[in-house]
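Session log. Operator J.P. requested a structure for one protein chain; no other inputs attached. Running the standard single-chain path with token output.
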Amino acid sequence: MARQMNQKILTPLAFNVHAQRALFALAQPLAHLGTAHARGFSTSRCGLNEQHKPEGAQASTSGSSHQQQHQQETSSSSDQAQNFYNTFKAGYEHVKSKTAGAAGGGSGQEPAAKRLLQTLAKDLREVLLPAQDITSATRAYTGPVASTTYDGPTALVLARQQATGWQRTWDTVQEKLGGIPLVSKLLNLKVTDTAAYKKGQEIVEDIKDKYETSDHPVVHKVEDIKARMFTGSEASRAMREIRVRDPSFDMNRFVQSVKLDAPVVVRAFLKHDLEALSHHCGPELLERFAGIFKHFDEQGVFEDPSILFIGDVEIVEVRLMDDDPFIIAQFHCQQLKCTRDKFGNVIDGGANQIQRVYYFWGLQQERSPVVTAEGKVVPPRWVIKDMMWQSMLALV
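Structure written below.
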């Protein structure tokens, strides 16, 4: 009965042959243990009944012998219980290992669910990186750099290259056959100087010129296919160039780096701080800012630099400009629409009027990284070559 009950309880867990065998091995000690306990309980009960009989010394001796037998059976039952526990533990470990192997496909690989969770955790770490792990993408490095001076010899020395075995054999053949006029003429003959080669080159150039100036639809279709197959899209070529200059480039980290720089640059722009902007912007944009700030200074007005909120950064376009990677990014800021004069009077907007301003940055990657004095390689920075701000929408 106990054997049937244990098999009935454990059968749904045995989903493969190895697990069924292990569970069946576990059920047998459990059945024997139940039988042993029942026998021990029955024997001890009989001993107790005989002890209560009104007999003399023989009854007492009989009760003592039954008590000793009961103790021996109890000790044997404890040993069986310990053996059952050891057998159960070993079988459990066996079933556990077989179950893990079946869940992993039996090939030693990690389960698909575990791999999926690991991939999801990696993506979440890339998207939700802590702020201390993100560095500025647009700020120029101003610390000490590694020395690039060379103190070794600089004079050029001519060295004769050792001839190979083939070259020595060819030189020997030329020396032996150089006295024959026909062979000497063939050896000194250049194919590019023949009339047939020149005529063929003229034909090829004529066909090439006609193909390049043709307006036939088939020609245009062929050129489009060639461009897609061999050059790829402009964004793919730009990304390839980005990774050549910075093999560790990651778009998620780049977006977070731009978001880290956004409040610094926008606040410096609102404060008309050219020195702070010079660490992030290119010379052309700084010249344009200087003209805008000069106009405000001549009128004696300034804007409120308070920034309430910075939105998420979005990548608008990735392209090449003058063979340099160029990324256009956008974000929005919630800031106060308040312009004051030199006396502090509000001349436009209000001290409690909130507006949303959309900013567009044109970021161009530098060509080479920077090596610090400690030997650390700083990736090429992204210079803000252009900045635009779109129509401001009042929120309240």
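Operator note: The two ends are 79 Å apart (CA to CA).
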